[in-house]
Each structure stands twice: as C-alpha cells, then as structure tokens.
Input
Amino acid sequence: MERVLISGGSRGIGAALVRAFATKGHRVAFLYRANTAAAEAVAAETGAIPIQCDISNPVAVHMAVAKATETLDGAPTVLINNAGVSHIGLSRDMTDDEWRRVCDTNLSGAFYLCREAQGAMIAAQYGRIVNIGSMWGKIGASCEVAYSATKAGLRGLTTALAKELGPSGITVNCVEPGLIETEMNRTLDAETKAALIEETPACRIGTPEDVAEAVLFFSDRKASFITGQILGVDGGFAI
Ligand code: NDP
Output
C-alpha cells in the first residue's frame, strides 16, 4: 500500500486520480486551492484526506506536505503533480499577473512539491513522481503561450529530476493529456471541440479516467526501470 499525495484532487483529472488510487486500496491525500465543497465531496466518496493549499506558495506547500505526512501516517511514497490552470488569450494582451499565475501554479508549484517530497523518498530510497503535462507542452497552442511554456517546462523538470533522483530509487515521469472532458475546457464552444475531435486519430475527447490509467502505470512498484519518460494520453493528437 502506497501513501499518495495528489495536487488538484478536488475536480476533473485530479478527482479521477484520487478515486483510482483509493479504489486500489492506497492511502490518499490531495491538495486543492479553494473549492472546499468539491474537495469534501471527493473526500466523502473516497476516504481520501483533503488539504487546502495554494501550491504557488512555497510556504503553504511546505506545511501541506507536513500535514499530508502526519495524516497519511508517513511521508508520501507517490507524488502526483496534477494541479494546473490555463489562460486563453493573445500573448500580447497578457498581464504580468496573468503570466505569473500560470507559471507559479503549473511549474513552480510542481517544483515546490517535488522539493518538499523528495527528502523522505531519498531517505527511504524509494519513490514515484508523476507530473501532469499537456500535449500543448510538446506542440504549443496558439493563444496559450504561458500554459504551453509551463507544460514544456515540466518536460525538463521531469527528465532532469529523473537523472538526479534515479540513484535514490525514485522514478520521475510525465503524462501529457490531450483534450480531456473537465471544467478546464468549459469555455470551449461545440465547434472548437468538434474541430479538435476531427484532428484526433481516436476520434473522441479523452476522459479523466484515461489519464488515471497512465498515471497508475508509472506509479506502480513494478515500473522501477521506467523513468524520465513522457507519455501522451491524447488519442494520437500530437503524433
Ligand atoms: P480542473 O480545472 O478541472 O481542476 C484543476 C484542479 O487544480 C482543481 O482541483 C483546483 O483546485 C486545482 N488547483 C488549481 N490551482 C491550484 C493552486 N494554485 N493550488 C492548488 N490547487 C490548485 O483541471 P483539469 O482536471 O482539467 O486539469 C488537471 C491537470 O491536467 C492540469 O495540470 C491541466 O493543465 C492538465 N491537463 C488538462 C487537460 C484537459 O483537457 N482538461 C489537457 C491537458 C492537460 P480548486 O477546485 O480548489 O480550484
């Protein structure tokens, strides 16, 4: 049984990850930013422990990992960096605050969590870290420059950390979803969705459960010889 810490577990892909790990009998704690009602609903359904934490704040992350360690009866053996935010708009119109919000959450937040969680993993000579990137980090999305840049940054974080932590028995991998049916895409109109599906070899939008399966694979003890890998879960969109 693993002790699993998932960021952004209150909704969407993160909630599916909480369900997937809890169903397998693992102890799960998850972070969320503000949506307490959604977090409590996921917690009630799965038995997982909700912890409010804005991952763009390094002090809050330090305290949240300490709380997770206490409530899980030990430090996390699996860390899933899932929380993320998007921003759609022309790059020339983007304010400094909008740029920072995306970078501080998607990239810095993942870094802070990796930094906090790795000490106990190194001491135990075991750990699994999975970062949730995006196919836009591979191929870039027009009008999502900051988002694409942070997700490309997660590719570098993944490969560099895999090399740094490999000797300590810790694997670091990245899952890059394509278009997945969650609230993040609530602003996409039907026409845009249809156009994206048209370009997807699998001819459909993905589900949070599609992503969860790939994350479970990387998080398994048996996946000990797989590290620094980036796996697209995008129905073939980005090939
Ligand atoms: P949602 O918008 O549905 O959920 C986002 C989750 O992240 C929520 O739990 C939210 O908490 C949490 N969160 C956001 N900001 C912070 C923060 N500063 N601190 C802590 N938690 C935070 O997103 P998805 O489920 O769609 O996306 C999950 C991940 O998958 C993201 O990294 C996203 O970039 C990536 N992804 C998604 C795709 C998609 O099509 N949906 C495609 C490719 C990648 P709260 O509920 O409190 O707001």
Residues 76 and 117 are 7 Å apart (CA to CA). The domain at 3-180+209-232 is CATH 3.40.50.720 (Rossmann fold). Strands lie at 3-7, 27-32, 49-52, 78-81, 127-132, 170-177, 230-233. DSSP finds eight helices and seven strands in the chain.
